[in-house]
Design a protein that fits this description.
Blueprint (H helix, E strand, L loop, with lengths): L8 E6 L2 H5 E11 L3 H8 L3 E2 L4 E5 L2 E5 L2 E2 L16 E4 L2 H11 L4 E11 L2 E11 L2 H24 L1
Antiparallel strand pairs: 1-8, 2-7, 2-9, 3-6, 4-5, 5-7, 8-9
């Protein structure tokens, strides 16, 4: 724990489709290497992980297709909103993730971007893609829970 700062986490962006489209297995917390205008824009909540994915390149992990909007107050030195961003992890974590994703059907999915102690972090998960019938089952379960809660509310 960093002394003098509170244990505050501010969520910047969530990837809600990740739990629906993938079966999440292991999760890791990675730091993000951002430019000055990117972190300022992220602090205001202008980031999206909807179509983002993590790709191993040269034994490093890179966040691809994440959109961080240009910072409005930075006119001359703005960044490319879709540029690849390096993930900061320990070497043993990177090796573990790369080895696991070499298995058939496994991928690395970003699930959440947040600020922790003022630093940008990304939660990534090793995931397996769901089949169409698994998605239908998840929708049916959610609808059943919703109707049960509605019925219980009427009884009270």
């Amino acid at each position: 724990m960093i002394m003098g700062k509170t244990d505050s986490i501010k969520i910047i962006s969530l990837n809600r489709k990740a739990k629906f489209n993938y079966e999440l297995m292991d999760t890791f917390e990675a730091g993000l290497s951002l430019l000055g205008s990117e972190i300022k824009s992220a602090r205001t909540g202008n980031a999206q992980l909807r179509d983002a994915f993590v790709e191993p390149i040269n034994n490093e992990l890179w966040l691809q297709n994440a959109h961080i909007a240009p910072y409005k107050m930075s006119h001359s030195q703005n960044h490319d909103p879709m540029r690849p961003r390096k993930l900061l992890l320990h070497r043993r974590e990177i090796n573990k993730i790369i080895i696991k994703t070499r298995e058939s059907g496994l991928t690395i999915v970003p699930t959440k971007m947040y600020l922790k102690y003022g630093r940008a972090k990304l939660e990534i998960a090793i995931a397996r893609g769901k089949r169409q019938y698994d998605k239908r089952q998840a929708i049916a379960d959610r609808e059943m829970k919703r109707s049960m809660m509605k019925q219980m509310g009427r009884r009270k």
